[in-house]
Design brief:
The protein is of the alpha/beta class and 232 residues long. It has 9 helices and 10 strands. The radius of gyration is 17 Å and the shape is globular. The structure holds tricarbonodiimidic diamide.
């Protein structure tokens, strides 16, 4: 067992052998100009700023042998998995499925739906397309986690209070111990990010824990030392 002593609201204990990293929706559509996030009226720059920190967390997780799951919020080209209530909501500059500068907005296979190149999935990592905000809805995430033997999940990605928090709550209800990497997640609304971190860890970690990437890396580092010792 490992421990992140500096996690909030109290130390997070986990076994690297049953822990996976899940990186939520680090797609061009949320992070770059001309995508879905910008079409909703948001400034995408704060999201772009966390890319190096997410890359570091990915490197740490890969180095420690943790399975990595990447998600992408996107829909089929025929929109059969996009409820009209989602597509028709509000008055965005571009709706899901509309042609934009990065192809059809939030559609699988289009450039905008791809994960940013700095965080590209490595060979063998799971890439899960999801039509909802939560990654368990209408996907086989539960099956993947059962096959991996996962019991604890480390979360990163965007946006903190929408797809990340929704998925964390889904995972928490399914019995996973969930920890959110504080500096590897971001919102278009700074106050919403802070409120989300607080509500996750309030009431004795009612949804889960939070910790910085530095602290997560420090807790996982001995795994590398163990591996070196094993291989002589
Ligand atoms: N991935 C994700 O969070 N989808 C969103 O639509 N987020 C917003 O904050 N809009």
């Amino acid at each position: 067992m490992r421990e992140i002593a500096g996690a909030q609201p109290f130390p997070f204990r986990f076994d690297p052998a049953t822990t996976a990293l899940i990186v939520i929706d680090m797609q061009r559509d949320f992070i770059e100009e001309g995508g879905f996030g910008a079409a909703l009226g948001n400034d995408v720059r704060p999201l772009r700023a966390i890319v190096p920190t997410v890359a570091r967390l990915l490197a740490v997780a890969r180095g420690a042998g943790l399975p990595v799951i990447h998600t992408r919020e996107c829909h089929r080209p025929d929109l059969s998995d996009c409820p009209p209530a989602k597509r028709e909501r509000g008055t965005p500059a571009l709706r899901i499925g509309d042609p934009g500068p990065m192809g059809l907005v939030l559609i699988a296979g289009e450039p905008g739906a791809e994960i940013v190149p700095q965080l590209a999935p490595a060979a063998g990592e799971i890439v899960l397309d999801k039509p909802g905000k939560g990654a368990f809805h209408a996907t086989d995430l539960s099956g993947h986690l059962a096959r991996l033997g996962t019991r604890s999940l480390i979360f990163a990605g965007v946006t903190t209070e929408v797809c990340v928090q929704t998925t964390m709550r889904e995972a928490n209800d399914r019995g996973f111990a969930c920890l959110l990497a504080e500096d590897a997640t971001e919102s278009y609304f700074p106050a919403f990010k802070e409120a989300t971190l607080e509500m996750i860890r309030a009431q004795g970690a009612i949804v889960g824990w939070t910790a910085t990437v530095d602290r997560i890396a420090a807790a996982l580092a001995p795994a590398e030392a163990d591996a070196e010792a094993e291989h002589g």
